[in-house]
Design brief:
Length: 509
């Protein structure tokens, strides 16, 4: 079929299921209205995984979805790559462009923008910003159009800030002469941005590159902290003398950062890498925790003696981390693979605690190719993973046979229940000891305690686990809290009094 899911998100209010974005080259079964070589394909499913709608977006060329986020009006903002100049696509500058488009909650295209130049501009990451706009990240080789400041003739990180309807506010090329690829960008709580990917440069904006034994630049994970206008505040290279990279970086509840990706190195910043039976390096899932200035607090190599690749990471309600990846290893940290030795990938989901210790892992898939590419934690403390499958056995049901072109692959969406109870689990009304009103709220709401115990510590987190508020409140009184400056969406209110912990969900309109 040639269909693969790259990104998943909830709706803006945290209810009404999920939206999954990716690419399709099909035009049968679930896929209708494909415009050409390949279309961006978005599927809306309900909480049980049943399809509400599925729509193709694009033209006669090739389009895809690399990232999708909910909008406050119930729709979705989507980023991908466009090569077309017709159909749904207009304004293409040439070759691959960043393609930013907005759809309604029912999938209708509201507006679209192409950003880039006459060469290749490949979009990877999308975030919303506090001012109602968007931050985009990817890679460019263009020197014209919207792109300014490319380093030499190399491939650079390209970071783009737009307003709420996709108009360019500012853009920055980041990198050096060796080739640099951006995979992840997110706005940080100070209004700036954290950017991650891989670099093969040792000049330009890049310093601290780990060199190979022959003195040339290896490929390092390269993390860049920008201010609110895109100027570099700090940058750091992480890795060793082989190729290492960052696939996803997020800000953590403590104000630091964590990234996942892949490590090939056996030296430098990389510790406890799993070697093959011959003693040489292969890829491990690499997880690195940083403080707020980019210094390593801890790092973990996860995997076995074959290929293990980290794709996505999110902080969980309990302060730990959930990772979506894929593995070919039959040993080491990996248990329960479905394929024969030397076979294909399994989707590999890994849960770490807040210090990086492995709590549990799960291999998902069949005896063919399966990859986990995007993961979110849901309000009931479960996990939903989007990716791709070519299997039709074991965990995979309902796979379509390849089409006449011989192309394989289906969107694959899986929901897992956490196998270890977390410290933050939404409670039922029968054991609540506080109430919230109004809920939903425009921003100001009141917490009324059900008892008169001394004091409680309150913490409020958004859906991705970033802390939005913390204080001590008096249990004997009503407590008014103002979240007017925070974005609309779902928040979790956690109260702790002594050893007792309870959580409720708040919806901010």
């Amino acid at each position: 079929m040639g269909d693969g899911g790259n990104a998943i998100c909830t709706s803006a209010n945290g209810f009404n299921g999920y939206a999954i974005g990716g690419v399709t080259i099909s035009n049968n079964d679930d896929v209708h209205g494909n415009h050409g070589q390949g279309d961006a394909w978005i599927i809306k499913i309900d909480a049980l995984g049943d399809t509400i709608w599925a729509k193709c977006y694009g033209g006669s060329g090739f389009e895809n979805v690399s990232a999708i986020r909910p909008t406050i009006d119930g729709g979705y903002i989507t980023l991908g790559v466009a090569t077309s100049t017709d159909g749904d696509v207009s304004g293409n500058k040439g070759n691959d462009d960043f393609w930013l488009f907005n759809i309604s909650g029912s999938g209708s295209l509201l507006w679209q923008k192409c950003l880039g130049g006459s060469s290749d501009d490949v979009a990877e990451s999308l975030g919303t910003t506090f001012d109602g706009g968007y931050i985009l990240g990817g890679t460019t080789t263009s020197t014209d159009g919207d792109v300014k400041g490319l380093h030499s003739t190399s491939q650079d990180y390209w970071v783009v800030k737009t307003d709420g309807i996709g108009n360019l506010v500012w853009q920055k090329c980041l990198g050096g002469s060796g080739g640099d690829q951006c995979y992840s960008v997110q706005q940080t709580t100070d209004g700036g941005y954290i950017v991650g990917g891989s670099s093969g440069s040792k000049d330009g904006d890049v310093t601290g590159m780990h060199l190979t034994k022959t003195g040339v630049a290896s490929r390092d994970a390269w993390i860049v902290k920008l201010d609110d206008t895109g100027h570099i505040l700090w940058q750091k290279c992480y890795g060793g003398s082989d190729e290492d990279w960052c696939q996803r970086i997020i800000q953590t509840k403590d104000g630091g950062y964590i990234f996942t990706g892949t490590a090939n190195s056996l030296d430098g910043d990389v510790k406890a890498h799993h070697p093959t039976s011959g003693g040489y390096s292969t890829e491990d899932v690499w997880v690195v925790k940083l403080d707020d200035t980019g210094h390593i607090q801890w790092q973990k190599c996860l995997g076995g003696s074959d290929q293990d690749v980290g794709r996505d990471i999110q902080q969980t309600f309990d302060g730990g981390y959930i990772i979506a990846s894929f593995t070919r290893s039959p040993d080491g940290d990996v248990k329960g693979v479905h394929y024969p030795a030397g076979g294909w990938n399994d989707e590999w989901i890994v849960k770490l605690d807040d210090t990086g210790h492995l709590q549990w892992q799960r291999c998902l898939g069949g005896t063919n190719e399966d990859e986990g590419r995007s993961i979110i934690q849901t309000a009931d403390s479960s996990y939903v993973i989007a990716g791709i499958t070519e299997s039709n056995n074991y965990d995979v049901l309902g796979y379509r046979d390849p089409d006449s072109s011989g192309s394989y692959g289906d969107f694959w969406v899986v929901k897992l229940r956490d196998t270890i109870p977390t410290a933050i689990v939404p409670v039922t009304a029968s054991n609540n000891w506080f109430s919230i009103f109004p809920n939903p709220t425009k921003g100001v709401f009141t917490i009324q305690m059900a008892n008169t115990a001394a004091l409680s510590n309150i913490e409020i987190y958004n859906l991705v686990g970033i802390k939005a508020y913390e204080a001590v409140i008096n249990n004997a009184t009503s407590n008014t809290i103002d979240l007017s400056t925070k974005p609309a969406g779902v928040y979790f209110i956690k109260l702790r009094s002594g050893d007792a912990v309870t959580v409720q969900r708040l919806v901010k309109e």
